[in-house]
């Protein structure tokens, strides 16, 4: 068994099986046998299963929120928002199951192809392996299994070993519906032990992965010829222009920097502030950051919880030390007690230190001053990631120029990089990944187009 601990206080809160290679083989064989059953599920069944689970989840909202807040890093208030979003993700999946469609094709556009009638439609890929991270242990699971079921796939879910309980409880809700046996299976175990077997098996037609770049690259090397979805990390920038609404910019970026203690792929990590506003913005940002209450995740007044593990805490400390060694200054924070790392703001940060280039995945933000728009765009783009960015300005032309210039999957104007709704296309450029999620887009990734042509 794998024991699951509350990362905040070390209490044992549950356990899940640690799968063996034989277990993986059994799950793969079951999924493979369920491919036709899944494909043949009528749309009304897919819709009712997904709505049914969304409804059950809504009824048990608080119970699910408490599990997220215990096994993961979120406070109870953050966890409740995740459950609400998960209900939404499942409802959108149900609605999209209704809309799976194709298009007719004008075959007569090519001389010699007259008198044909044809169309394409979307068919499920078959077996989808979904691998999820620890930071959104419920909603990121729904972002894979919702679209997979809506599309008619058989799906195997492997959640993170630190946070498997939310996923297990969600699968139990599906098990209580009329979803045919074998269409959705959970396997729990260390990725390093069972990962290779799951992703390299030729019966698996798609690996849908959300996690860090190291594991992502390992999976890419092992998966072989199959579809791949890679939702990887980032070090998201936000750009604050002199003409921005400063109250809005400060409040949004503080929230985006410290949500889930910075353990969020959309975490505001690099803040570029136009030079005339730098000091004013910095002082207000630090003032608001100092008000963040760190502590017990289940306390209603707590704003920020712990890091997931000692290793993750150490990584944050190392990034901060690396920045200090290159001349950075700590404006607030920089200390930790156990896994509780204080919300930390740095300035004077060198362009080539780790926090300027890599993903910290913790509650630390770096402030940089810039002179003009082109400089802000160039510096924001000067990394190997490109997930999302935020821009704060009151000028429409500036907003368009920056939004067009940033190399990433999404630009939020007058919101921080952290803004997302579950129905929008979501996924990064460059080192942030391949493919898109955001229910209908995940459905597109999890289906193949098939063309039919009738010679009349
Ligand atoms: P991780 O890469 O350590 O783990 C992710 C999953 O991969 C876990 O389920 C893990 O058990 C599994 N895994 C580990 N080794 C494996 C292997 N060899 N084969 C197959 N699976 C294996 O990531 P994490 O620490 O849980 O999450 C943090 C990372 O996820 C950050 O980089 C963050 O930015 C990223 N993330 C991205 C998004 C997005 O949508 N782009 C969302 C959330 C998190």
Overall mean confidence score, pLDDT: 98
Rg = 23 Å
The secondary-structure class comes to: alpha/beta
CATH architecture of the largest domain: 3-Layer(aba) Sandwich
How many strands appear in the DSSP assignment? 20
CATH superfamily of the largest domain: Aldehyde Dehydrogenase, Chain A, domain 1
Reading off the top of the CATH hierarchy, the class of the largest domain is best stated as Alpha Beta
Tell me, briefly, the overall form.
globular
Strand order of the largest sheet: 12-15-16-11-10-17-18
Task: Estimate the helix proportion, in percent.
Answer: 40-55%
The helix tally amounts to 16
Distance linking N and C termini: 61 Å
Q: Could you name the ranges where pLDDT drops below 50 across 5 or more consecutive residues?
A: none
What is the total number of structural domains? 2
Portion in beta strands: 15-25%
Within the CATH hierarchy, at the fold level, what is the topology of the largest domain? Aldehyde Dehydrogenase, Chain A, domain 1
What does it look like?
The model has no long low-confidence stretch (mean pLDDT 98). This protein folds into 2 domains: 2-233 and 430-455, 3-Layer(aba) Sandwich (Aldehyde Dehydrogenase, Chain A, domain 1); 236-413, Aldehyde Dehydrogenase, Chain A, domain 2 (3-Layer(aba) Sandwich), CATH 3.40.309.10. It is an alpha/beta fold. Helix 1 runs parallel beside helix 8 and helix 3 (43-59) runs antiparallel to helix 6. It starts with a strand and ends with a strand. The protein is built from 16 helices and 20 strands. The strands form 5 sheets. Strands 12-15-16-11-10-17-18 form a 7-stranded mixed β-sheet, sandwiched between helices. It is globular and about 70 Å long.
């Amino acid at each position: 068994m794998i024991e699951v601990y509350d990362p905040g206080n070390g209490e044992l809160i549950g356990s899940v099986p640690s799968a063996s290679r034989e277990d993986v083989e059994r799950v793969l064989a079951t999924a493979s046998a369920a491919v036709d059953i899944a494909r043949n599920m009528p749309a009304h069944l897919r819709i009712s299963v997904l709505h049914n689970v969304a409804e059950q989840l809504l009824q048990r909202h608080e119970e699910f929120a408490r599990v997220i807040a215990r096994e993961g890093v979120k406070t109870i208030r953050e966890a409740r928002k995740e459950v609400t979003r998960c209900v939404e993700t499942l409802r959108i999946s149900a609605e999209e199951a209704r809309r799976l469609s194709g298009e007719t094709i004008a075959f007569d556009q090519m001389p010699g192809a007259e008198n044909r009638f044809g169309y394409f439609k979307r068919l499920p890929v078959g077996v989808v392996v979904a691998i999820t991270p620890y930071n959104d242990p419920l909603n990121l699971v729904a972002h894979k299994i919702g679209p997979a079921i809506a599309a008619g796939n058989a799906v195997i879910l492997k959640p993170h070993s630190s946070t498997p309980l939310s996923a297990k409880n969600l699968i139990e809700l599906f098990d209580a519906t009329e979803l045919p046996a074998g269409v959705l299976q959970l396997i729990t175990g260390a990725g390093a032990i069972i990962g290779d077997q799951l992703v390299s098996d030729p019966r698996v037609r798609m690996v849908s992965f959300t996690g860090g770049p190291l594991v992502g690259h390992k999976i890419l090397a092992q998966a072989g010829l199959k579809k791949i979805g890679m939702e990887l990390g980032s070090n998201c920038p936000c750009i604050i222009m002199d003409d921005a609404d400063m109250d809005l910019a400060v409040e949004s970026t503080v929230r985006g920097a410290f949500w889930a203690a910075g353990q969020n792929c959309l975490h505001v990590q690099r803040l570029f502030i136009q030079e005339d506003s730098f000091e004013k913005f910095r002082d207000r940002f630090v003032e608001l950051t100092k008000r963040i209450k760190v502590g017990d995740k289940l306390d209603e007044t707590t704003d920020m919880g712990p890091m997931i593990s000692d290793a993750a805490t150490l990584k944050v400390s190392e990034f901060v030390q690396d920045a200090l060694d290159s001349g950075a200054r700590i404006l607030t924070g920089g200390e930790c007690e156990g896994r509780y790392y204080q919300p930390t703001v740095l300035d004077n940060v060198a362009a080539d230190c780790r926090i300027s280039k890599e993903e910290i995945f913790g509650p630390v933000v770096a402030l940089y001053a810039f002179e003009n728009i082109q400089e802000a765009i160039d510096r924001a783009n000067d990394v190997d990631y490109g997930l999302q960015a935020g821009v704060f300005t009151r000028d429409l032309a500036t907003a368009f120029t920056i939004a067009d210039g940033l190399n990433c999957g999404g630009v939020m104007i007058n919101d921080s990089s952290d803004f997302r709704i579950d129905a929008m296309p979501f996924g990064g450029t460059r080192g942030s990944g391949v493919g898109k999620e955001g229910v209908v887009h995940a459905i597109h990734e999890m289906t193949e187009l098939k063309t039919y042509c009738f010679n009349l």
